[in-house]
Amino acid sequence: MDNWLTRETLLIQVRNRYDEKSWAEFDEYYRSFIKMIITRMGVTHHDAEDLTQQVLLSAWKALPDFDYDTNKGRFRGWLCQVTGNATKNFFDKRKREVKRHEKATSDRSLDYIKTYNQADIEQIATEEWEVYISNLAWKNIETELADKVREAFLLLTQGKDPADIALELDIERNTIYVYKKRVTKLLYNEINRLDRELG
Questions:
Q1: How far apart are CA 149 and CA 169, in angstroms?
Q2: In angstroms, rounded to a whole number, what is the distance separating the alpha carbons of residues 35 and 83?
């Protein structure tokens, strides 16, 4: 992750459909985020895998004509719209299939389907983005941390008492708060960096 492309450079490069390296990087950064939105909208795991692939294919087709302009909004807003539209189309298609088989009144397999407007989808995407970017930030910084620093921070996030953590790790209680402050700052900076570069 250290030598990744910036968002702008990546988006310019993926407009070339034959740049496999850039597409692999695009897939790595955005696939799980897309799937998080789709799953949150109520699509089952198996269908979410297929639908995520469809969204990535739609993006692959649309990005060569995508006009990257930060003044017009964030890239993830566009990606959210593509994802939301694909998911709504999936739900519409599934409903039509059920009606065609005259199961609409008795088949409960579609109980999970809800109606989402664009504001709902944007809210879901915003919440899932925060989770996604936080997890990615932690993944990026955790290998830079000393073992005890990492363990102390993780134990704190699990709600363990600092006194118990101090005993478990054989460190001073005040040291735990120093570790927490250090890791929180690193995490905050990395989240902001990722949000600028990928958002």
A1: 10
A2: 9
Secondary structure of residue 27 in the 3-state scheme: helix
Q: Which two tokens stand for residue 165?
A: 């953590």
**pLDDT tens sequence for the chain (199 residues):** 444 444 566 666 666 666 677 778 888 888 999 999 999 888 888 899 999 999 988 888 877 776 656 556 677 888 888 898 888 888 888 777 766 665 545 555 555 556 677 778 888 888 888 999 999 999 999 999 999 999 999 999 999 999 999 999 999 999 999 999 999 999 999 999 888 877 6
Determine the number of helices (DSSP H) and then strands (DSSP E) in the chain: 8, 0
**Nearest one of 12, 90, 22, 25 to 55, comparing CA atoms:** 90
Model pTM greater than 0.85? no
**89 CB-side CA count, 13 A:** 11
27, 56 in Cβ contact below 8 A? yes
> DSSP secondary-structure letter at 16?
S
137: number of Cβ within 10 Å: 20
Give me the residue label for tokens 């900076």. 189
- For 8-16, which contacts have Cβ atoms below 8 Å and span 24 or more sequence positions? 8/68, 11/63, 11/66, 11/68, 11/75, 12/68, 14/60, 14/63, 15/63, 15/64, 15/66, 16/64
